[in-house]
Amino acid sequence: MQWGQIKSLFIICFLVLNVFLAKQLIDREDETLSALPEASKEEELELNISGLGQLDQEVLEAPLLYTNSYNFNEVENIAGELTNQEVVVANATTLFSRMTSPVALSIGDDEAFTAALTQHVYLGGTFEEYRYLEEAGLIVFFQRINYPIFYNTQAVLFVKVNDAGEMTHYMMRALDVVEEDQEENEQTLITEYDAVYRMYHNSNILKTGDEISDVELGYHNLVSLPSGEQLLNPTWQVSVNGTVDYFINAIEGHDYPQYTNFITETLDDFVTLLMPGSSRQYTYYSLDEDREEEDTLLSSIRQPFITTYQQLTEVESE
């Protein structure tokens, strides 16, 4: 055999050996990579979202609530509970009040604040503060039935305060529980952690780098019935980055829409009821003996809230 042929044979053998060794190396790398465990969805959540350490894994139960609008005109001796104020009730379900003398609220002192609210606001003890809009002199409250009722136009209290932090007016609507036997309506809820998990993996609401600020259980209007009743569903309120609130159905896990203009839209609805019209029925309580015209009470309550509405809409439009 000639030397040229032997050399070619060696080259071919070395090429085959190199290909074999390269394949072996690639196969080993693949085996090593496949042996590394993939990050679970829980690990992915924990890597990308902060504030998870505060979330509770406890499984809670809460009832569905069947409610109806509170009828203020059906309350016996309601006038006896409305001291230091003149009151008008529109269409039986919306109460407006003008304080005869401004009431100090001690804003910043939780105990004194709650005491003043309970003493001077009808059903005041059943509401909790949601937001203080200091620039507009307005405090917004949500009604509580076991837990707060989120963003419900039929379960809200607006308190108007002056520059000294004193209450001068308030207006409100409330819900009343129709079915008292709540144990029959008890529902098992998803956990706080599960609510956040679904926000990240199912709804894509949460983004990498977001922080969970707080989680609170409350109620959301699931459906309004033709009779005027509302079915309230347990709901997780999840605060993100200290600025945005999201609402997750605590039974089924889906999210509800956000409410960007709830305060101004509800204010507008309230103020419209203070404009005399054929569709409005007014009932007056604890009127000042010196008041000659009932319409002047409507005007004296309406104007401060119109000013507040204008201030808030100007801020929203900026």
TrEMBL record:
| Superkingdom of the organism of origin | Bacteria
According to its record, what are the GO cellular component terms?
membrane
Database matches in Pfam families? YycI
Q: Which InterPro entries match?
A: YycI-like
List, for all copies, the residue spans of the domain called Regulatory protein YycH-like.
Answer: 48-251
Protein's UniProt name: Two-component signal transduction system YycFG, regulatory protein YycI
Per the UniProt record, the source organism is Halolactibacillus halophilus
